[in-house]
Amino acid sequence: MAFLTGFENDVFISYAHDDNEPDLLGVEWVGELVKLLKRALKQKLGARENLEIFWDGWKLQQNHQLDRLEKEVNASAVFVAICSPSYATGEWTKREIECFAKRAGINSNRLFAIEYLPLPAGMEHPLALQSHFVKPWHQPVSEAGARAPISPKENTSAYLAHLQDLAEQIKDQLIAMQQSGATAGTAEASPDTGLTTNGAAADVEGQQMKSVLLGMVGVGQDIQDQREDVRRYLEQYGIRVYPDCEKPYYPFEGTAFVEEVAEDLKKCDLFVQLIGDYPAMRLPPLEHDFATTQLLMAEAVEREGFEILQWRAPDLDLSAIKDDQHIALLTGNRVMGNLTLETFKATIVDHATIPPEEDEPEPEVAAAADGGDVPEIFVNANDDDDGLIDQIMTKLDDMGVNIYAPMNDDNAERIREELEEYYKTCDAIVVVYGEAEPRWVRSQVTMCNKLEHERKRKPRLKALLMAPPEAKANLRMRLSDWQEIDCRDGLDPERLKSMIAGLKR
Prior knowledge:
The structure is a single chain. The protein is of the alpha/beta class. It is about 35% helix and about 15% strand. It is built from 14 helices and 19 strands. The chain has helices at about 30-45, 65-75, 85-90, 90-105, 155-180, 220-235, 255-265, 290-300, 325-330, 340-350, 385-395, 410-425, 440-450, 495-500; strands at about 10-15, 55, 75-85, 110-115, 135, 140, 145-150, 200, 210, 210-215, 240, 270-275, 305-310, 335, 375-380, 400-405, 430-435, 460-465, 485. α1 packs across α5.
């Protein structure tokens, strides 16, 4: 039985049978992916028995079997294409994806694509995939440039990261379709998000969203992948992204570049720019590289409500950058260099959400130093580090934020209730790891993560503050959506202020 009412299959896996031949370790790559993806989706959706992933385990020989597959495609909510040279040249794989694209729309958020092996020069993916981001699941295995699929047995860490990312995106799409009441009979095409003033669009729940201009980035493959990850994430919230996926990049000629960017800026109220460690190209006759050019054009927009959000990876080594123009771009006062990409994506959605009109005006709230809403921060430390909270509050006095800390109380039940309330409501969560026992720190991180599904929105920041002393036990946790603030050498005020700078609107 499917998780999504109105569909027989939640996910249809489309692949070439050559790509499921056992490797040297006996692993059937596609079969292993299906098994692990189903397990991950069940965990994320809380679906025990109600989840259907369809994939055919036979080498098809007759047309009536292909007809059956097309029926399964039409009854599926989400389509996952496992791309490869065999997939690109296969008659039946092309038929499957054409069938899905015809029903769901060529730019549908219901279509996901991963690449088992890269295509040789001159070969193209099927037409329905050419406007989609195809995420590589392969890596170099020799100095000559040969590549091989990421293996669940040999490359476990990388494989699980890719798997969890895919499962998270599919989970978000299934929930969005569930909330919109989509069925196989009503989902022939992706919903047309009606544009309002300056391109604002409605998501699946009818919430009005701003449109986003997603700036082009430099040449690094990591930052390119991250840009496409952001695009897919925003589109799943019903956010209109420019340039659109039919033509996701602007022309590499200066005059045409400026003209198209200027047209898209007229339609958007949010400019988002990811900045990597490689500078962008300069497009003659422009004076600046295209990343700086886009930023300058966005800064020239005078429309009320227009915002600029920039991000760089927290671990980016600025000392290794030699290009002065790129350094200026990376160190601009808007650049959020203290957030993980997951937190930054949630921040974009938060800024893109247009508050619903209220029948009565909301009560006024205290204003931050920059005139925006006052972020609320919960700082949690156990008894061993209780003194650090007062130091943190003192050092952040002039930042225009509200800071909460646990009350001293002998009643364990009241303490837990208070912790849960703050973990579910505050804009930022900071867990202090100083003298505390590692098990206490782990328990607080786990509690915060478990309570996240009860929040209306994800927290804009989850941070683990590494306080003195310098010597610490390894927490043995991999926290992809938590930021680590290293203050083991002392509570540096500038480091603490940098931690919350991205919260200020």
